[in-house]
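Bit of a strange request maybe. I'm writing a small parser for structure token strings and I need a real example to test against, not something I typed by hand. Could someone generate the tokens for this chain?
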Amino acid sequence: MSFGLFKKPFPIADSKLKNKESSGFTLAEVLITLGIIGIIAAMTLPTVIKKYQEKVLVTSYLRVYSILNNAYRSAADEYGYYDNWPQTGSDTVNKLKKYLKLKDCEVGFGRGKCFPDVSYKDLDGFRGFNFAAQSDNGKVGQTFQLASGEAILVNVEYAVSFIVDLNGSKKPNIIGQDLHIFSITKDSKYTMVNPGGTGTLTLESRPNLCNPNNSETVEGWRNGYSCGWWILRHRNMDYLRLSKDDIIKYW
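Reply from user aminoacidic:
Good idea to test on real output. This should exercise your parser:
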């Protein structure tokens, strides 16, 4: 009689075991789930990578801007404002280089040298331009690298312009993305180093020269040269995805 007390629990335990065995995923379900995850990753990963690469370039740009400005402030403390410096390019560069941490590299162009020998496109993706084609004549072509790795070509023909490649010979090699220009002009005691070239550029023209869909040209300027103003203000490269009207609106 005592054994009858244990007859009822056994079917219940057997039922739980069956439910446990049938609660897993089938191979087909697992493969379908992995396929969906793969599709989503393939759709979103390029965008994530692109945004990350842009963030790296923005960080590098802001670093270079800060380094050049700090060097200018230090030089100004020692020699006075740029307005009072002898207007010879080599003298200006030497004053600044004294306060820059530089990387050892072979002065000149090409592989293994300070500034990459590559062709750059304007921001609109058309006109190619090779800065290395400029001769090292004491006015155009002085090169060096910052300790952080950015390559700089100095144009001192009229005033001082720093043509900066943020990532060396790596792509995209596009003005306004990985190549930017900074300058020191007569008003530098007020603005320090300018996020743009030495030519006159009106406020109205700046948005048009930082617009991938624009082919406007201004003497001495190429499309993409003025993007530094946007980066300093917004800390991003959203102009690469905005329409012309939005770039003007948010400039």
